[in-house]
Write a structure and sequence with these properties.
By secondary structure, the protein is an alpha+beta fold. 47% of the residues lie in helices and 16% in strands. The protein is built from 24 helices and 20 strands. Strands 1-8-3-6 form a four-stranded antiparallel β-sheet. A four-stranded antiparallel β-sheet has the order 2-7-4-5, with no helix packed on it. A four-stranded mixed β-sheet has the order 17-16-15-18. β10 and β11 form a beta hairpin.
Amino acid sequence: EAARAQLRAAVDLHYLAPGDCLLEAGQPSEKVYVILKGRVQAVQIRAEVEQHFADYGPGDVLGALAVIMGRARYRYVALEDTLCHVIAATEFKALIEAHPRFAAWFHAGLSAKRKLLAEQQAPEELGRLMLTRAGQAQLAPALFVDPATSLAECVRLMRSRHVSCLLVGERGDPAIATRTDILYALALAGAGPDAPVGPLARKPLIAVEAHAVLFQALVRMTRHRVERVVVREEGRILGTLGLTEVLSHYSSHSHLIGMRLERAESIEEIAEAGRGLTELVATLHAQGAKMSYLMELVSALNSRLMARVFEQLLPRELHSKVCLLVLGSEGRSEQLLKTDQDNALILADDLDWPGLEDFAAQFSAALAQLGYPPCPGKVMVNNPKWRLPQRAWRERLIRAADDYDSNAMLELAITVDARPIAGNAGLFEPVAEQIHSLGRNDALMRQFAAPALNFHTPLTLFGKVKTDEHGLDIKKGGIFPIVQGLRALALKSGIAETNSFRRAELLVDAGVLHPSDASDVQQALSVFMRLRLGDQLRRLRQGQAIDNHIDVRALRTLDRELLRDALRIVNQFKDSLSERFKLSGL
């Protein structure tokens, strides 16, 4: 309340006539302006030529960044009679120094604003899960034993130290044996108390870094179907973290879905286990979960669900002869709701199985039964085009190097995001190598990157968000340009990662993207996905079909500003892609 009083006392009223300049590009600002009435134009100077950047109107704030950073990025000129609230730079600086949350809103850009929004939305328990680091959690001590240690001695050690697992072997590269492993060996496998623990220990260790947040640990447990992970710091094992410890911070039901999937013995039981997925997404979204973490968790559950269907329908003796791939958004671990199926099969070259077509039909039908609609483009295993022997996949990719047809580019983009989730993942490795070899073909990469510029960014000439009678197609206008651009940059740079957020990080490591540009792109993508998910969940609650449109009119003021900032980042990213891939002539 004292801060509000301080702000009210500092505010003055200011009139601007048409043509009056508020701020000069490159110059510091003595004031911060809040437009009450009228319109102001921002102009950027490039190669000594003035270019219109955006228009601002009532509610917009100008000059804050110029005060913080010491200079304005653009020249701001009143287009009509304009009335503003004005705060002196000295008063504004005093406010941001005294009130960090007030400062966060004005600091350099989208990332800080979005973080503030997440803090406003997130409840205390989710905040703990998002902010608590694995290294700060209650870790069980890492108890190392020699592989020759008897099972009886292992049980005694675990009881005395109150731990549920042992690390077996060398400290640099141990295996793990859990209390359950030892119990099964003694009770069911006929092992005696004097038997060594070594043969029971399993590798590789599933680990998280000490700086990872607990939500990431939960995702890792879900993805690998384990209830305990090792926590490392600079290669050193600090201890182990169990599912119980993670869930003590958060009452998520994701682990229950995973457990039910593991126990399911029929398609009907798999369907029952997966029924809570949409509710889980809605709950986590409402609680302000970070989008990249939420997508990872849902992707892990989605992948396990599809893998369980695969395991139920494919005879066990054929599991080494077939690899199930997920493509598109699921391949990128970015699917949140059950949209259309995008999957494929790689078959061993020597596979001769008359039941293949029936299996593929049953698999696609089962996924439809589980709520995954058939793909309109028929990118599914029941389409012979998307179930091929390994050699045929490689030949298809070799041909892709010379096929610049738009449909061929679309199919290649889907394939570049492929991720194996069941069967023999080794079948994918030569195919993946063939995919990544395409990045060395400059002519192909130019055509591959071009679709990122296909759709107009929905901003008006004056920098406002543009919509039509259906709202705003956020996939075409925002998500696709970023996803396709990162996909093209990653392929050209030899980066095998498929997730868009991690692609951006690795492109920074490769020197392709500047850290601030990568952060802006990640945050913009996260904003688009959060807004789309919110609209889709609203439609589901109302019994409507979901699509990629959002109702901009229904957004809060803060969300509208985030959307506008994010769309401007899309324009900047498109400019950089056009320059890097020389797309202006296409």
